[in-house]
Specification:
Blueprint: H1 9-19, H2 30-46, H3 49-59, H4 63-77
Region (Disordered): 1-36
Biased composition (Low complexity): 12-21
Length: 101
């Protein structure tokens, strides 16, 4: 019986990975590197946008402008709150008691 020596695309990719050869496409860090370089150029030319938002917020006399600047700045200073699932081990009933201190 004649042996089939054809390779699939997946076989070729796995062989290339084992040999250390790179596949098609840009290097994994290329997008991050480019984004960092672009941000650095913008900050050098125009200043830090977060600092500008802080200046607008501090100097604003219009309450709406002050609030809008604060809203835009907040996500960079404080992490977003996320839902957290709480469960008892082994699927047991969980009782949560909230008391006023």
């Amino acid at each position: 019986m004649k042996k089939d020596h054809t390779q699939t695309v997946g076989d070729a990719a796995r062989a290339a990975a084992r040999s250390g050869a790179r596949g098609p496409g840009r290097p994994g860090q290329a997008a991050t590197y480019r984004r960092e370089q672009t941000a650095r150029r913008i900050i050098e030319k125009h200043g830090d946008p977060l600092e500008e938002l802080a200046r607008i917020m501090a100097a604003a006399t219009d309450p709406k402008l002050k609030l809008d600047a604060a809203k835009a700045l907040a996500p960079y200073l404080y992490p977003a709150m996320k839902a957290v699932e709480v469960s008892a081990p082994g699927g047991e009933q969980l009782i949560v008691e909230v008391r006023k201190a």
